[in-house]
Specification:
By secondary structure, the protein is of the alpha+beta class. Helices cover 37% and strands 28% of the residues. The protein has one domain: Nuclear Transport Factor 2, Chain: A, CATH 3.10.450. The protein has 5 helices and 4 strands; from the N terminus they run H-H-H-H-H-E-E-E-E. It starts with a helix and ends in a 12-residue tail after the last strand. The N terminus is likely disordered.
């Protein structure tokens, strides 16, 4: 029970869903990525998560989609990113890529999360959405999670 509560706290703080919803048959798409596009996506996803591991907010910001960056400056992004990055993570790995179209994919990432209050690390998963813009893959900025403390 304590481990599940710790996972939920970390998920909310990191800004990722606590669970990854399994795809139903209706969600399954016929879209596929060619090997070159999938390799490029995998490399960009790992680059973003390695930046998150190091708390390199500039690198994280630069890998978010241009539509997000056109609305939110780096100065505006940094405080939110700092809050989302307050927990240590390690060992990010791409576990699954599901193409929605040739320019949009869902990516399941696993990592180890550390909750200092519990004094332990634990495996965690999240699902990111990535889009290809002008030939480059970018992470779609997740909605800011609402907590029980939000108005």
């Amino acid at each position: 029970m304590r481990r599940a509560a710790s996972a939920l706290v970390l998920a909310l703080a990191v800004g990722v869903p606590a669970t990854v919803r399994a795809q139903s048959p209706a969600d399954t798409s016929k879209a596929t990525l060619d090997a070159k596009s999938e390799a490029a996506l995998r490399e960009r996803v790992l680059r973003w998560w390695q930046a998150r591991e190091k708390r390199d907010h500039r690198a994280m910001y630069d890998l978010f989609e241009p539509a997000y960056r056109s609305k939110v400056t780096f100065a505006e992004f940094t405080p939110e990113s700092t809050v989302r990055s307050r927990f240590d993570i390690s060992s990010p790995a791409v576990k699954e890529i599901t193409a929605e179209t040739k320019d949009r994919a869902k990516v399941v990432v696993e990592f180890r999360g550390m909750v200092a209050i519990a004094g332990q690390s634990f495996p965690s998963r999240t699902e990111d959405v990535w889009v290809k813009v002008h030939g480059e893959w970018f992470r779609v900025h997740p909605e800011t999670p609402k907590t029980i403390l939000s108005p």
